[in-house]
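Q: I'm writing a short explainer about Aminoglycoside phosphotransferase domain-containing protein for a general audience and would like to include a description of its predicted shape. Could you first generate the structure from this sequence?
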Amino acid sequence: MQAALDDEPRAARTVPGPASAAEIAEARAAAVSVRPDLRRATAEVQAVGWDCLGLRLGDAMFKFPRTEAAAWRLCGEPARLALARRHLATPRIPDMTVHRAPRLFSEHPYLEGALVDPATYHAMPETARDRLADEVAAVYVALHRIPVAEVEEAGIGRVAAWPSAERLFDAAARVLDPPLLASVGATLGRVSVSLPDTMVFGHFDTHGWNMACDTATGRLDGLFDFGDAGLGPRHTDLSYPSFVSPDLTLRVLRRYEARGGRPVDVDHVMDLHTVLRVVEVVKAGERPAPFVWALTDWLAALDRSRSEGEFGAG
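A: Of course. Here's the predicted structure. Afterward I'll give you a sentence or two in plain language.
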């Protein structure tokens, strides 16, 4: 955790603001310039407000980076996707093409299926939640078994480190109220003295907005957005399903171990997710409020899970 706060934030999100009608129209024109067969297709905005604009046209998905950091990730994503496809029979991993004219953007086949946000997840039946957790766990086990040498031969390096606990705390102190800051400080203290983790190839963004899921059955039909993938700490990679729910993470971790993954420190995974949310707060610049609310909601959900005895007291 040595990076400065202004280093490239691969573990968190920037907020460049909503896309204008002009930006969407420009993106559509760029997509049609490489796929003229889609000129009559209706453009559907799939994701905006983070660091990429996602645009669906017919059977294709186009992604337009909105920041320099997003452009950097986009250029490296095809190699990461190709490595994952070699080791995963399911779910479907897209085969991406990067276009550099008339501007930088990517194209891949659209993956049918629902995104899994918290409301969607908690509306899913128990059997569907269990199946989704098992299939996410299978992805983790397969990716974490890829030899480091093979990852490096593919030209894929380490994920960017987070800022140090001290720097995160100092930055968070400018944004968070005292009770929330105290809780964050305790978590940062535990993480700062934790033992070094095993380095694995991971997705490092495995949350429900990057999934295509049959929510009735829990079948994971697709996994995408590998721009953050790389070599990094195993427990950190396992923390991302908590963007959906700590319940999903707990189910994933149980099935990860049952499928042959190495033992997991559940409390450490949850602490790391708290740190990840703090990173998002301090990276949000002048618009931290949504991330502060999300951090508050996460800590409340974590407390409920602990009080219900779902895992240790931290």
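A: For your explainer, you could say: The CA atoms of residues 267 and 314 lie 5 Å apart.
Q: Perfect, that's easy to follow.
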